[in-house]
Design goal:
With about 110 residues, the protein is an all-alpha fold. Helix content is about 70%, strand content about 0%. The protein has helices spanning about 10-25, 35-55, 65-85, 90-110. Helix 2 (about 35-55) packs parallel to helix 4 (about 90-110) and helix 3 packs antiparallel against helix 4 (about 90-110). About 25% of the residues are buried. The mean pLDDT is about 90.
């Protein structure tokens, strides 16, 4: 997703789904009782909730705010790709995932 074309609602839903899959894979590397796993579980739950909200509701993907959030998500996703596959960079990955969730939340809040 490195092109400059604005993201659409279906693309946003797909992007969140891709990140959810990555979080699930990353979660499998940690025992359920670890702090990292608990953090990832919380992130996963939040992303799932926002994705379902976006799927079930109408969002105008032509507004300036949506385009702003979509652009931010593209950048954050690029940052995430640089760390998520390296288990040794879990702290940076968690920080980036938290940032990703915050922007998804802002996009989800654009719906009536």
């Amino acid at each position: 997703m490195t092109n400059n074309k604005p993201m659409t609602r279906p693309e946003l839903i797909r992007l969140i789904g891709d990140v959810l899959t990555e979080v699930d894979v990353l979660r499998s590397n940690f025992d359920r009782e670890t702090e990292e796993r608990k953090n990832l579980d919380n992130i996963r739950d939040a992303l799932d909730t926002y994705q379902r909200k976006i799927v079930r509701n109408v969002i105008n993907d032509n507004t300036a705010k949506f385009k702003e959030h979509a652009t931010s998500l593209k950048k954050i996703n690029e940052d995430l790709r640089q760390t998520i596959e390296d288990i040794n960079k879990i702290a940076k990955t968690l920080e980036t995932l938290v940032e990703f969730v915050k922007v998804v939340q802002k996009a989800a809040e654009l719906m009536p």
